[in-house]
Amino acid sequence: MDYINTTQTETKNSTNISSVFTHQVLPVLYTIICMCAFILNGLAAWIFFRVPSSSALIVYLKNMVVADILMLFTYPWRVVGDLGYGGLQLKLIVCRYTAVLFYLSMYTGITFMSLISLERYFKIVCSTSSVSYFLQRVLVAKTLALLTWGVMMFFMLPNAILTNQPMPKVFSCMALKSDLGWRWHETSAHFNVGIFWVAFLLMVFCYTSIACHVYRSYKRVQRDSSKARRQSNRSIFSLLAVFFFCFVPYHVCRVPYTFSQRHKDDFSNHTHFILFQVKEATLFLSALNVCLDPVIYFFMCRTFRELLLQKMSSVNLKNRRPSNRHWVQYQKSVKTEQQSKTSISHL
């Protein structure tokens, strides 16, 4: 995990460029995705509250919505802090609470993505196996969801509790941690990275197997089903595309960035600065996940898609009704005016 660190090690040039990107550009971008994600996830939550948990897939998708909303809650704090408002007290809140919540939500969402991949794999590729039947049960899915939240909280919440040292003269999130906090931070960071790479390998295996299975099925049937194949591909690979776009760049970038943090003397100030900028840019891509997850819900959950389309059609219908009513009133007024003219002519 990467927390705010105000210790200035860059050159004057680098610091100026850093302030433009991290203190002017990124806050604007985070504000934009915060507003978009608030609308999209609010709509997704409203729809999923109306959808019964009738399958394991819906259970996992609902938990992804919860993780996204928690992650979204941390963005305003980051924006205000990056803009330089709030002082040390705000930085303390970010270090102790919102940064922990951000990473807790992000890696919980990644875990649910891997569970969805596993569920899809057994449902499509191994649909007749007893394991598939077991994993398709709603009770099992709810148990795995609770276990996921429990394990993630166990590893992440101590980072907030152990950030309990007095405010240092040179502010740094890591300086607020006790000795145990340092060790727990490193343990939880390795745990989270391990979750990502396990999820990455699992998703690649599952979706490669699904793609081969779908291709063989269409080839065996030997009929023109290009439209059905496109729909199936969109449903299957929307999650994989979001995962690769949002999370892979950040975790690839973490390798050299973490190495540079541990061996600072082996890297120049300019190299430190470049790696920090790349890390912040790829972290933004991870944050963008809250805007792209609704695409997954739309393609993967038919009930979600139908309710969304129904809601959109009802909104369009409501927008049309006033104009129709006005048109009817206009026709009545014209008819009344014609009748009055006719009666006057008879006089």
Quick recap:
The protein is mostly helical and 347 residues long. It contains twelve helices and no strands.
Rg, rounded, reads 27 Å
Distance between the termini: 90 Å
Largest sheet: none
Q: Helical percent range? A: over 70%
Gross morphology:
globular
Structural class: mainly alpha
N-to-C SSE series?
Answer: HHHHHHHHHHHH
Q: Give the tally of β-strands.
A: 0
Q: Which stretches are poorly predicted, pLDDT < 50 over at least 5 residues? A: 3-17, 340-347
Percentage beta strand: under 5%
CATH topology term = Rhopdopsin 7-helix transmembrane proteins
Number of distinct helices: 12
Task: Please identify, by name, the CATH architecture.
Answer: Up-down Bundle
Mean pLDDT across the residues is 81
Say which CATH homologous superfamily is assigned: Rhodopsin 7-helix transmembrane proteins
Overall number of structural domains: 1
The top-level CATH class is: Mainly Alpha
